[in-house]
Amino acid sequence: MHAFDVLGDPVRRRILELLADGEQTSGSVTATIRAEFGISQPAVSQHLRVLRESGFATVRPEGTRRLYAVNPGALQELDAWLNRFRGMWDQRLDALATELARGKRERRIAQARASETGSAANIDREETDTP
């Protein structure tokens, strides 16, 4: 399964968020996911299996429990792949920020001019109203 297919599921993304806080027992993950998504224990187990088989999560036995954790290597590989595209977005977001700043500056200038024009008009009215 492709990494984006794995991470495209909101349940699996939430499981990874839980595991990012540290190792979790399968029971703990199941309880949280069942409460938040209303899915069955076998469905949660299936999501854990997909994460494990795709390399995004690791599992280790501890007595009768199974402890799951995030595999940072898989996320680093994905991050490295995405990094190729960040430059494109960084440039576009920088350009957008420049345009937004320019628009704010132009609005401030226009408001200041309108305020000055309004003040000048009031002064002219006051001078013509005086006998």
UniProtKB/TrEMBL annotation:
Domain HTH arsR-type: start-end pairs: 1-90
CDD domains: HTH_ARSR
Keyword Transcription: yes
UniProt keyword annotations, A-Z: DNA-binding, Transcription, Transcription regulation
Listed InterPro entries: ArsR-like_HTH, HTH_ArsR_DNA-bd_dom, HTH_MetalResp_TranReg, WH-like_DNA-bd_sf, WH_DNA-bd_sf
UniProt source species: Streptomyces longwoodensis
Stated name of the protein: ArsR family transcriptional regulator
Region (Disordered): 107-131
Matching Pfam families: HTH_5
One MF annotation (Gene Ontology) recorded for this entry: DNA binding
